[in-house]
Amino acid sequence: MPTTASAAHAFADVTTSESTLRRFLHGLPGVDAVGLEARAASLGTRSIKTTAKAYAIDLAISMIDLTTLEGADTPGKVRALAAKAVNPDPTDRTTPTTAAVCVYPDMVTTAKAALAGSGVKVASVATAFPAGRAALPVKLADTADAIAAGADEIDMVIDRGAFLAGRYLEVYEQIAAIKAECGDRARLKVIFETGELSTYDNIRRASWLGMIAGADFIKTSTGKVAVNATPANTLLMLEAVRDFRAQTGIQIGVKPAGGIRNTKEAIKFLVLVNETAGADWLDNHWFRFGASSLLNDLLMQRQKLATGHYSGPDYVTVD
After folding, report:
1. Labelling 184: which of 39, 44, 84, 123 has CA 20 to 30 A away?
2. What Rg do the C-alpha atoms of the chain give, in angstroms?
3. Which of the following is catalytic: 159, 219, 268, 297?
4. pLDDT surpasses 60 at 319
5. How far apart are CA 122 and CA 118, in angstroms?
6. Per-residue confidence at 194, pLDDT binned at 50, 70, 90?
7. Domain total for the chain?
8. Is position 268 annotated as part of the catalytic site?
9. Is residue 316 domain-resident?
Protein backbone atom coordinates (compact mmCIF):
# COMPACT_ATOMS: atom_id res chain seq x y z
CA MET A 1 0.00 0.00 0.00
CA PRO A 2 1.31 3.51 -0.79
CA THR A 3 2.33 5.58 2.23
CA THR A 4 1.47 9.14 3.21
CA ALA A 5 4.84 10.21 1.85
CA SER A 6 3.45 9.35 -1.59
CA ALA A 7 0.62 11.86 -1.25
CA ALA A 8 2.77 14.89 -2.01
CA HIS A 9 3.96 13.25 -5.22
CA ALA A 10 0.45 12.23 -6.24
CA PHE A 11 -0.76 15.84 -5.90
CA ALA A 12 2.41 17.64 -7.00
CA ASP A 13 0.55 19.52 -9.74
CA VAL A 14 -2.05 20.71 -7.21
CA THR A 15 0.49 22.22 -4.82
CA THR A 16 2.64 24.14 -7.30
CA SER A 17 1.05 27.47 -6.36
CA GLU A 18 -1.56 29.11 -4.18
CA SER A 19 -3.91 29.38 -7.15
CA THR A 20 -3.70 25.71 -8.14
CA LEU A 21 -4.22 24.57 -4.56
CA ARG A 22 -7.15 26.95 -4.10
CA ARG A 23 -8.69 25.74 -7.35
CA PHE A 24 -8.45 22.14 -6.20
CA LEU A 25 -9.81 22.71 -2.69
CA HIS A 26 -12.67 24.93 -3.85
CA GLY A 27 -13.43 22.43 -6.59
CA LEU A 28 -14.28 19.72 -4.06
CA PRO A 29 -18.01 18.94 -3.94
CA GLY A 30 -19.96 21.19 -1.61
CA VAL A 31 -21.28 19.60 1.58
CA ASP A 32 -25.03 19.11 1.96
CA ALA A 33 -25.21 20.12 5.62
CA VAL A 34 -28.77 18.91 6.12
CA GLY A 35 -28.03 15.55 4.52
CA LEU A 36 -24.77 15.14 6.45
CA GLU A 37 -26.39 15.82 9.81
CA ALA A 38 -29.38 13.62 8.99
CA ARG A 39 -27.13 10.68 8.07
CA ALA A 40 -25.03 11.13 11.21
CA ALA A 41 -28.18 11.21 13.33
CA SER A 42 -29.63 8.16 11.57
CA LEU A 43 -26.50 6.07 12.09
CA GLY A 44 -26.54 7.11 15.73
CA THR A 45 -29.83 5.29 16.26
CA ARG A 46 -28.43 1.84 15.40
CA SER A 47 -29.11 -0.67 18.18
CA ILE A 48 -26.05 -2.58 19.43
CA LYS A 49 -26.87 -5.80 21.29
CA THR A 50 -25.00 -7.44 24.16
CA THR A 51 -22.30 -9.45 22.38
CA ALA A 52 -21.63 -6.71 19.85
CA LYS A 53 -21.64 -4.15 22.66
CA ALA A 54 -18.98 -6.04 24.60
CA TYR A 55 -16.82 -6.16 21.47
CA ALA A 56 -17.42 -2.45 20.81
CA ILE A 57 -16.47 -1.48 24.37
CA ASP A 58 -13.17 -3.35 24.20
CA LEU A 59 -12.49 -1.90 20.75
CA ALA A 60 -13.20 1.62 22.00
CA ILE A 61 -10.89 1.15 24.99
CA SER A 62 -8.10 0.02 22.66
CA MET A 63 -8.61 3.16 20.53
CA ILE A 64 -8.26 5.77 23.27
CA ASP A 65 -5.47 8.30 23.37
CA LEU A 66 -5.67 8.82 27.13
CA THR A 67 -4.95 12.48 27.46
CA THR A 68 -3.81 15.06 29.98
CA LEU A 69 -3.07 18.51 28.60
CA GLU A 70 -3.25 20.89 31.52
CA GLY A 71 -0.89 23.53 32.80
CA ALA A 72 -0.94 21.80 36.18
CA ASP A 73 0.25 18.43 34.83
CA THR A 74 2.96 16.87 36.99
CA PRO A 75 5.21 13.83 36.49
CA GLY A 76 3.16 12.02 39.10
CA LYS A 77 -0.08 12.64 37.24
CA VAL A 78 1.46 11.46 33.97
CA ARG A 79 2.82 8.29 35.60
CA ALA A 80 -0.61 7.57 37.09
CA LEU A 81 -2.25 8.08 33.70
CA ALA A 82 0.32 5.78 32.08
CA ALA A 83 -0.40 3.08 34.67
CA LYS A 84 -4.10 3.37 33.90
CA ALA A 85 -3.43 3.14 30.16
CA VAL A 86 -1.47 -0.09 30.60
CA ASN A 87 -3.86 -1.64 33.11
CA PRO A 88 -7.21 0.15 32.89
CA ASP A 89 -9.01 -2.28 35.22
CA PRO A 90 -6.74 -3.82 37.87
CA THR A 91 -9.51 -6.31 38.75
CA ASP A 92 -9.72 -7.69 35.20
CA ARG A 93 -6.52 -8.34 33.30
CA THR A 94 -8.47 -9.12 30.11
CA THR A 95 -9.19 -5.41 29.70
CA PRO A 96 -7.34 -4.04 26.66
CA THR A 97 -4.68 -1.38 27.02
CA THR A 98 -5.38 2.02 25.52
CA ALA A 99 -3.70 3.00 22.26
CA ALA A 100 -1.60 5.86 23.61
CA VAL A 101 -1.03 8.43 26.30
CA CYS A 102 -1.06 12.00 25.00
CA VAL A 103 0.92 14.69 26.84
CA TYR A 104 2.79 17.95 26.35
CA PRO A 105 6.37 17.65 25.01
CA ASP A 106 7.97 18.28 28.41
CA MET A 107 6.16 15.22 29.79
CA VAL A 108 7.15 12.82 27.02
CA THR A 109 10.24 11.50 28.83
CA THR A 110 8.16 10.71 31.91
CA ALA A 111 5.43 9.00 29.87
CA LYS A 112 7.95 7.03 27.81
CA ALA A 113 9.63 5.63 30.91
CA ALA A 114 6.32 4.74 32.52
CA LEU A 115 5.07 2.96 29.40
CA ALA A 116 8.29 1.10 28.57
CA GLY A 117 7.61 -2.40 27.24
CA SER A 118 3.83 -2.00 27.33
CA GLY A 119 3.12 -1.39 23.65
CA VAL A 120 1.16 1.76 24.54
CA LYS A 121 2.34 4.65 22.39
CA VAL A 122 3.39 8.09 23.58
CA ALA A 123 1.66 10.89 21.69
CA SER A 124 2.66 14.50 22.14
CA VAL A 125 0.91 17.68 21.10
CA ALA A 126 3.28 20.10 19.40
CA THR A 127 3.50 23.09 17.04
CA ALA A 128 2.37 25.70 19.59
CA PHE A 129 -0.65 23.70 20.74
CA PRO A 130 -3.51 24.62 20.99
CA ALA A 131 -3.46 27.90 19.03
CA GLY A 132 -0.89 26.93 16.41
CA ARG A 133 0.24 30.55 16.21
CA ALA A 134 4.02 30.41 16.02
CA ALA A 135 6.71 30.70 13.39
CA LEU A 136 7.59 27.51 11.52
CA PRO A 137 11.08 27.22 13.09
CA VAL A 138 9.43 27.24 16.53
CA LYS A 139 6.95 24.56 15.45
CA LEU A 140 9.74 22.42 14.02
CA ALA A 141 11.79 22.78 17.20
CA ASP A 142 8.73 21.85 19.30
CA THR A 143 8.23 18.74 17.17
CA ALA A 144 11.91 17.77 17.19
CA ASP A 145 12.04 18.13 20.98
CA ALA A 146 9.06 15.81 21.46
CA ILE A 147 10.47 13.18 19.10
CA ALA A 148 13.92 13.35 20.69
CA ALA A 149 12.27 12.71 24.06
CA GLY A 150 10.66 9.56 22.67
CA ALA A 151 7.27 10.53 21.21
CA ASP A 152 5.85 7.90 18.86
CA GLU A 153 3.16 10.22 17.54
CA ILE A 154 2.89 13.99 17.05
CA ASP A 155 -0.45 15.80 17.24
CA MET A 156 0.06 19.12 15.44
CA VAL A 157 -2.39 21.99 15.05
CA ILE A 158 -2.85 23.95 11.86
CA ASP A 159 -2.79 27.74 11.80
CA ARG A 160 -6.53 28.31 11.53
CA GLY A 161 -6.00 32.02 10.91
CA ALA A 162 -3.94 31.26 7.82
CA PHE A 163 -6.46 28.67 6.63
CA LEU A 164 -9.48 30.95 7.10
CA ALA A 165 -7.64 33.78 5.35
CA GLY A 166 -7.23 31.49 2.34
CA ARG A 167 -3.48 31.02 2.70
CA TYR A 168 -3.79 27.33 1.90
CA LEU A 169 -0.28 26.89 0.52
CA GLU A 170 1.20 28.25 3.75
CA VAL A 171 -0.79 25.70 5.77
CA TYR A 172 0.20 22.95 3.35
CA GLU A 173 3.88 23.81 3.57
CA GLN A 174 3.80 23.86 7.37
CA ILE A 175 2.16 20.43 7.55
CA ALA A 176 4.61 19.05 4.99
CA ALA A 177 7.56 20.46 6.96
CA ILE A 178 6.34 18.92 10.22
CA LYS A 179 5.77 15.62 8.42
CA ALA A 180 9.35 15.77 7.12
CA GLU A 181 10.58 16.40 10.68
CA CYS A 182 8.65 13.34 11.87
CA GLY A 183 10.06 11.20 9.07
CA ASP A 184 9.74 7.52 9.92
CA ARG A 185 10.19 8.22 13.64
CA ALA A 186 6.69 9.39 14.49
CA ARG A 187 3.22 9.30 12.95
CA LEU A 188 1.65 12.71 12.38
CA LYS A 189 -1.89 13.63 13.43
CA VAL A 190 -3.08 16.97 12.01
CA ILE A 191 -5.63 18.84 14.13
CA PHE A 192 -8.03 21.17 12.32
CA GLU A 193 -10.00 22.58 15.29
CA THR A 194 -13.21 21.98 13.37
CA GLY A 195 -15.20 24.15 15.77
CA GLU A 196 -13.30 27.18 14.45
CA LEU A 197 -13.55 26.38 10.73
CA SER A 198 -17.12 27.75 10.48
CA THR A 199 -18.45 25.54 7.67
CA TYR A 200 -18.56 21.91 6.64
CA ASP A 201 -17.03 22.92 3.30
CA ASN A 202 -14.00 24.21 5.21
CA ILE A 203 -13.73 20.95 7.15
CA ARG A 204 -13.75 18.99 3.88
CA ARG A 205 -11.09 21.31 2.42
CA ALA A 206 -8.94 21.05 5.54
CA SER A 207 -9.23 17.26 5.44
CA TRP A 208 -7.96 17.05 1.89
CA LEU A 209 -5.29 19.66 2.53
CA GLY A 210 -3.99 17.68 5.51
CA MET A 211 -3.99 14.40 3.61
CA ILE A 212 -2.25 15.86 0.56
CA ALA A 213 0.43 17.34 2.84
CA GLY A 214 1.22 13.94 4.35
CA ALA A 215 -0.89 13.56 7.50
CA ASP A 216 -1.04 10.03 8.89
CA PHE A 217 -4.20 10.99 10.79
CA ILE A 218 -6.67 13.84 10.53
CA LYS A 219 -8.06 14.99 13.86
CA THR A 220 -11.08 17.11 14.68
CA SER A 221 -10.11 19.16 17.68
CA THR A 222 -7.82 20.16 20.50
CA GLY A 223 -10.54 19.77 23.14
CA LYS A 224 -9.85 23.38 24.15
CA VAL A 225 -12.76 25.13 22.39
CA ALA A 226 -16.54 25.05 22.80
CA VAL A 227 -17.32 22.78 19.82
CA ASN A 228 -15.13 19.72 19.42
CA ALA A 229 -15.83 16.32 17.86
CA THR A 230 -19.39 15.79 16.63
CA PRO A 231 -20.91 12.88 14.72
CA ALA A 232 -21.42 15.13 11.69
CA ASN A 233 -17.90 16.55 11.43
CA THR A 234 -16.40 13.11 12.08
CA LEU A 235 -18.64 11.57 9.40
CA LEU A 236 -17.42 14.20 6.95
CA MET A 237 -13.79 13.40 7.74
CA LEU A 238 -14.45 9.67 7.41
CA GLU A 239 -15.91 10.29 3.96
CA ALA A 240 -12.76 12.23 3.10
CA VAL A 241 -10.36 9.43 4.10
CA ARG A 242 -12.54 6.88 2.31
CA ASP A 243 -12.51 8.93 -0.90
CA PHE A 244 -8.80 9.70 -0.57
CA ARG A 245 -7.94 6.01 -0.37
CA ALA A 246 -10.18 5.24 -3.34
CA GLN A 247 -8.30 7.86 -5.36
CA THR A 248 -4.74 7.26 -4.16
CA GLY A 249 -4.57 3.88 -2.42
CA ILE A 250 -3.30 5.68 0.71
CA GLN A 251 -5.13 5.00 3.98
CA ILE A 252 -5.32 7.84 6.52
CA GLY A 253 -6.53 7.59 10.12
CA VAL A 254 -9.21 9.69 11.83
CA LYS A 255 -9.24 10.95 15.41
CA PRO A 256 -12.28 12.67 16.90
CA ALA A 257 -11.25 14.46 20.09
CA GLY A 258 -13.02 16.41 22.79
CA GLY A 259 -16.51 15.96 24.17
CA ILE A 260 -16.88 12.17 23.78
CA ARG A 261 -17.53 11.18 27.36
CA ASN A 262 -19.61 8.01 27.53
CA THR A 263 -19.97 4.54 26.04
CA LYS A 264 -23.15 5.31 24.11
CA GLU A 265 -21.44 8.19 22.29
CA ALA A 266 -18.29 6.16 21.58
CA ILE A 267 -20.29 3.31 20.05
CA LYS A 268 -22.12 5.77 17.80
CA PHE A 269 -18.76 6.88 16.46
CA LEU A 270 -17.72 3.27 15.82
CA VAL A 271 -20.92 2.76 13.82
CA LEU A 272 -20.02 5.85 11.79
CA VAL A 273 -16.60 4.35 11.07
CA ASN A 274 -17.97 0.97 9.99
CA GLU A 275 -20.78 2.35 7.85
CA THR A 276 -18.78 5.16 6.21
CA ALA A 277 -15.10 4.27 5.85
CA GLY A 278 -15.50 0.54 6.44
CA ALA A 279 -14.14 -2.22 8.63
CA ASP A 280 -10.53 -1.49 7.61
CA TRP A 281 -10.66 1.54 9.90
CA LEU A 282 -11.96 -0.41 12.92
CA ASP A 283 -8.48 -0.72 14.38
CA ASN A 284 -6.49 1.60 16.61
CA HIS A 285 -3.89 2.02 13.88
CA TRP A 286 -6.54 3.92 11.90
CA PHE A 287 -9.05 5.29 14.40
CA ARG A 288 -8.58 6.91 17.79
CA PHE A 289 -10.59 8.71 20.42
CA GLY A 290 -8.94 11.72 22.03
CA ALA A 291 -10.36 11.53 25.54
CA SER A 292 -9.67 11.88 29.21
CA SER A 293 -12.92 10.82 30.89
CA LEU A 294 -14.34 8.36 28.31
CA LEU A 295 -12.31 5.43 29.64
CA ASN A 296 -14.01 5.56 33.03
CA ASP A 297 -17.49 5.11 31.56
CA LEU A 298 -16.32 2.33 29.23
CA LEU A 299 -14.90 0.46 32.23
CA MET A 300 -18.14 0.90 34.18
CA GLN A 301 -20.22 -0.41 31.28
CA ARG A 302 -17.80 -3.30 30.73
CA GLN A 303 -18.12 -4.32 34.35
CA LYS A 304 -21.93 -4.06 34.10
CA LEU A 305 -21.96 -6.47 31.14
CA ALA A 306 -19.71 -8.93 32.99
CA THR A 307 -21.48 -8.92 36.37
CA GLY A 308 -24.98 -7.61 35.72
CA HIS A 309 -24.59 -4.60 37.99
CA TYR A 310 -22.69 -1.38 38.27
CA SER A 311 -19.81 -1.17 40.67
CA GLY A 312 -19.39 1.33 43.47
CA PRO A 313 -17.99 4.83 43.00
CA ASP A 314 -14.44 3.71 43.79
CA TYR A 315 -14.33 1.15 40.98
CA VAL A 316 -12.45 3.39 38.57
CA THR A 317 -9.80 5.97 39.27
CA VAL A 318 -10.63 9.62 38.90
CA ASP A 319 -8.44 11.28 36.28
Report:
1. 84
2. 19
3. 219
4. no
5. 11
6. very high
7. 1
8. no
9. no
Q: Does residue 312 belong to any structural domain of this protein? A: no
Strand partners, 255: 219
Q: What is the mean pLDDT of the chain?
A: 94
Residue 48 is predicted with a pLDDT of 81
Q: Read off the CATH number of the domain in which 292 is found.
A: 3.20.20.70
Interval 240-262 mean pLDDT: 96
- Residue 243 is among the residues annotated as catalytic for this protein: no
User: Does residue 264 have an active-site annotation?
Assistant: no
Structural domain harbouring 140: 5-307
**Domain membership flag for residue 72:** yes
Domain assignment of residue 318, yes or no: no
Res 268: pLDDT: 95
Report pLDDT digits (tens) over 129-145: 999 999 999 999 999 99
The whole-angstrom separation of Cα 191 and Cα 281 is 19
Q: 32: buried, middle or exposed (CB in 10 Å: 19+, 13-18, 0-12)?
A: exposed
Of the candidates 155, 159, 216, 297, the residue annotated as catalytic is: 155
